[in-house]
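Q: Hi! First time doing this. I have a protein sequence and I read that you can turn it into a structure. Is that right? Here it is:
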Amino acid sequence: MGQIHLQAVLAGGVVLGVLSALPIVDTCCCLWMIAGGMVAAYLTQQNRPDPIQMGDGALAGLLAGIAGAVIYALVSLPVQFITAPIRRRVFQGFMDSAADMPPEFREYLDGFAAADGGIGAIFIGLLVSFPFILILGSVFSTIGGLLGALFFKRNTPPVPATAPPPPLG
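A: Yes, that's right. Below is the predicted 3D structure, encoded as structure tokens:
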């Protein structure tokens, strides 16, 4: 197996982590995980003159998945703090429009609205989501690394033909 470059792993991790942490865009998180692995495999191939092996692509993807989970956690925290007031307003609008809701259910949902956006709720959400991103990111980015090794593998240069030996006699 060849050498995996840190830049390839980090670039794949950034694709996976940032896009999985952004609201609305995060709905395609498995796609971003595969893309992160493919980016890592592509950049691994670009840093090597010889063709990338499937194991190199898988390893680059796996490492990108692990890096991506850490990057997800680092990006997700500020995004959650910034979007918390917006989520509260949207939720309040939903609650205001649901006048025919039973009072017990309304009180139950009001408890969620009070906890949403608090520092504790955001950290608990991250503690719950991080292991999932780590496991799923590692699996899907490894698949992406395998696909990247398959798609971006350089062709093996042809072996130079040798001249036939001179005739004897």
